[in-house]
Amino acid sequence: MSIVSFNFFVFIVIVFALYFCVPIRFRWCVLLLANIAFWLICSTWQLLCIALIPIGITYCMAIIIDSLNATGGKSAAINACRVIAILVDVAVLIAFKEVNFFIGIGNAITGIFGVKQLAFITGIIAPLGISYYTLTLISYLLDSSWGLFEVQKNPLKFLTYILYFPTLTSGPIMRYKDMSGELFEAKRFEYKNLCFGAQRILWGLFKKLIIADRLAPFVSALKADEYSGLYVFIGIICYTIQLYMDFSGCMDIVIGASEILGIKLPENFNAPLFATNLSEYWRRWHITLGDWVRDYVMNPILKSKGMQRLGKKTKKGLGKKWGKKIPVWIAMLVTWFTVGFWHGGALTFIFGSGLFFFIMIAGGQLLEPVWKWLIKLLHINTESIIWKMWQRIRTFLLFSVSISFSWAASMTDGFNMLKRGFETFNPGILIDGSLTELGIDGANWIVVFIALIIVLIVSNLRKKGSVREQIASCNIAVRWIIFLVLFFAVIIFGVYGMGYDSSAFIYGAF
Q1: 245, 239, 251: which is closest to 207 by C-alpha?
Q2: Is the pLDDT of residue 27 over 90?
Q3: Which of 68, 195, 227 minimizes the C-alpha distance to 472?
Q4: What is the Cα–Cα distance from 345 to 261, expressed in whole angstroms?
Q5: Can you give the pTM of this predicted structure?
């Protein structure tokens, strides 16, 4: 059941009606039933049973750790419980999503010695949302063991939190300390939540149906053949735009669907197109994943005793300024590897969605004195609008190049694609109509451009606060005009109808 389908919106209406019809203290039970129903509609009961294995083990280990903490238990026992739960969570994720990556590594090693190769496993169907709820389980286990909140001892409430149905498609990744109050405390009907939630859903449909799905045929056409020159770079840019509109549109829909119930989900985007460097881009893009790897991968590594000792040694040998960067770069390397591996168990993902950013960020820090010298030499005003615009364009292009590796079947294919971009000089395709022969005609390109301008305007308005609050402060006639135009834009220009097969959300495959 796609979240842009009619069935999904009927499902939301039913959940909404039931949620506010039952007594307040039982409303979380409606959410639990909705979670199970959504899972069974979108997946199977067998996969639900498999999902319950890591969920149940994490729940039990969290309670055991809480008991050990309360009675002054040994740290070794607490650590053992943590390790067991995390290993089970990660093992199940790898078994369903990344097992072929390890088979490939094993074959590469055994092939050196002439040992028979293992066959790759095909046709694996993973439990719904496994990449997202696995991270949620790990964050719950660690936060509860660190005493950041009281352990949830009701297994059904715990299940309600882990499998909250709007987040199963593509996140966002939830933290229990933020969501327990939202899910289990009294929620009364508020007209504002209904309006704002519906508006957020409408905005998500605008981005998904008008922009992302309209660009999809063009991107697919360029993927299917070995085009060269500007075709490559236009395709890379369009894929990045498609990915952003697809993922952020998905987030708008699920956050809006949850907001209708009065349940606030964490934001996952903050106008990444306005970022001036790659570090800032990732602080604005997939925010909950960035926060997760920072809190549970990077910070624990930096705080570990071994890294603290290394930091002291490098400061003595290299000086304070550069010595303290070595532990940070090591932690960054592991963190970005984790990000890339989470996106997909293949070198293309590990590099394109992970290590590429480590190389760019660490390299930028290493060359920082050179950049400062060049800026001073060329008398560049770093506060000027032109410089800020250049930084944003540069950052967007670097991000686009990195993400393009998810197209490729291998690292070699990825680099060959970029190589083809420089092999041919064909700027004529911008004016000779060639771009209108690859799945999008001229009229559809105009729709895309106008829609993108609207998205940029709205993103810029976010600097002043909530756009919906800004619109709510306008005259009632203005408000209705804005939302009616948006509604009819989706109805008229959205890609759907007879013969349309709703394309899956791209991040749902990660």
Answers
A1: 245
A2: yes
A3: 195
A4: 36
A5: 0.91
Listed residue (296, 264, 28) closest to 146, CA to CA: 296
* Residue labelled with tokens 């559809």: 444
- Look up residue 422 and give its two tokens: 């420089």
Task: Compute the distance between CA of residue 506 and CA of residue 220 in angstroms, rounded to an integer.
Answer: 13
72 in the Ramachandran plot: left (φ > 0), alpha (ψ -120 to 50) or beta?
A: left
Among 87-96, 287-296, 331-340, 360-369, whose mean pLDDT is lowest?
360-369
* CA atoms of 210 and 492, how far apart (whole Å): 9
Give CA–CA dist 494/198, Å, rounded: 17
Average pLDDT over residues 241-248: 93
What DSSP character marks residue 95?
A: I
Identify the H or E element spanning 298.
none
Q: How far apart are the C-alpha atoms of 445 and 435, rounded to whole Å?
A: 9
Question: How many whole angstroms separate alpha carbon 179 and alpha carbon 237?
Answer: 36
Token pair for 89: 């969570």
pLDDT at 379: 86
The single-letter DSSP state of residue 285 is: B
**Does residue 33 contact residue 39 with C-beta atoms inside 8 Å?**
no
Residue type, 499: G
End-to-end CA gap in the chain: 18
Region 232-248: mean pLDDT is 92
Is the pLDDT reported for residue 435 higher than 60?
yes
d(CA 236, CA 230): 10
Mark out the alpha helices in 146-212 (DSSP H runs).
Answer: 155-162, 176-184, 191-205
Q: Is it the case that residue 336 has pLDDT exceeding 90?
A: yes
Rounded Cα–Cα distance for residues 415 and 82 (Å): 41
- Taking every pair of C-alpha atoms in the chain, what is the biggest distance, in angstroms? 76
* Residue 140 to residue 175: CA distance in whole angstroms: 7
User: Does the pLDDT at position 510 exceed 70?
Assistant: no
Which amino acid type is present at position 257? Answer: A
| DSSP reduced 3-state for 269 | strand
- Cα distance between residue 129 and residue 463, in whole Å: 32
Examine the pLDDT at 479 and tell me if it is beyond 80.
yes
State the pLDDT at residue 498.
45
The pLDDT of residue 497: 52
**Distance (Å, rounded) from C-alpha 234 to C-alpha 215?**
11
Q: How confident is the model at residue 463 (pLDDT cuts 50, 70, 90)?
A: confident
Burial of 495 (0-12, 13-18, 19+ CB in 10 A): buried
Ranked by mean pLDDT, which of 108-117, 204-213, 343-352, 409-418 comes out on top?
A: 204-213
